[in-house]
Known about the structure:
The chain is built from four helices and no strands. The protein is mainly alpha-helical and 87 residues long.
Amino acid sequence: LLLLFWLPGSYSVPPTAIAALFAALLTKVGIYALVSTFTLLFPNNTEVTHMALGIMAGVTIIAGYIGALSGRDVSTIASYNVLTGVG
């Protein structure tokens, strides 16, 4: 859900090669950090952490689709598509 604010703007501004590098590396590292933080901070409550991650993923998918539908240029639509893939 926090990705909705900075990710589309940071992926639609740089040149295409840099945006592809961001999509390939930085997004995956951020997701890994989020999952590892949840599993290290809450090792005994796996039901709660899995439910929270699932809800965040669902909200991210829906918000990504809405953002892609409201995009006006190809780079903005592609950056929201990356956001949907994160979900």
